[in-house]
């Protein structure tokens, strides 16, 4: 697909949108995974949700400015916008990720190797 | 009213619920106000929203564990659960409040004296 994926500029990232994106545990699981392991294909998150739901969740994160998504052939690659988020809302991402790490109900992040 | 107001125990405060509570700018304005000025009557927030909407927003904050509400005669007094929130999700509240402070669209907090 060549359809452009819209991303908010760093200075336009909105606190309400970021909190709204991060309030969902599946979205926090995705963010935690790309935070800890670097950029990932969307298909890496299939243990968290169905493909349709993943497409939705990744789009919510992208539209809020939490992740950047690019196409690589047929695959979508998801990367965390950490520097931009940290610059705009210092400490917010780490606080949420620390909370996510301690949440036993979060979808498992690391697939068996 | 003598109806008991339910509050989650500190250890039961849920990250999804807290982020959901804080994603609304009116609720962030309320939290910022009690953070900076100490406990407040619900009526102190009437510049932010109608009475009906305030009742709803304060209940959302209370149910999420962000504020504690008590009756004092006919008035409802709202206090921030800062220590419990900071213990459970270190840095989260400050990061959100710092973002709120920089938001020019947030309802005005300080009433003219």
TrEMBL record, chains A, B:
Domain called HTH arsR-type: residue spans: 17-94
SUPFAM superfamilies according to UniProt: Winged helix' DNA-binding domain
Cited Gene3D superfamilies: Winged helix-like DNA-binding domain superfamily/Winged helix DNA-binding domain
Superkingdom of origin: Bacteria
Protein name: Helix-turn-helix transcriptional regulator
């Amino acid at each position: 697909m060549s359809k452009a994926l819209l991303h908010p500029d760093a200075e336009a990232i909105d606190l309400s949108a970021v909190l709204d994106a991060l309030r969902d545990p599946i979205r926090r699981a995705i963010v935690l995974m790309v935070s800890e392991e670097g950029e990932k294909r969307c298909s890496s998150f299939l243990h968290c949700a169905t493909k349709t739901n993943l497409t939705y969740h990744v789009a919510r994160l992208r539209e809020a400015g939490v992740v950047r998504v690019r196409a690589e052939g047929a695959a979508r690659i998801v990367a965390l916008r950490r520097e931009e988020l940290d610059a705009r809302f210092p400490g917010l991402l780490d606080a949420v990720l620390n909370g996510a790490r301690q949440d036993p109900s979060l979808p498992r992040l690391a697939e068996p190797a």
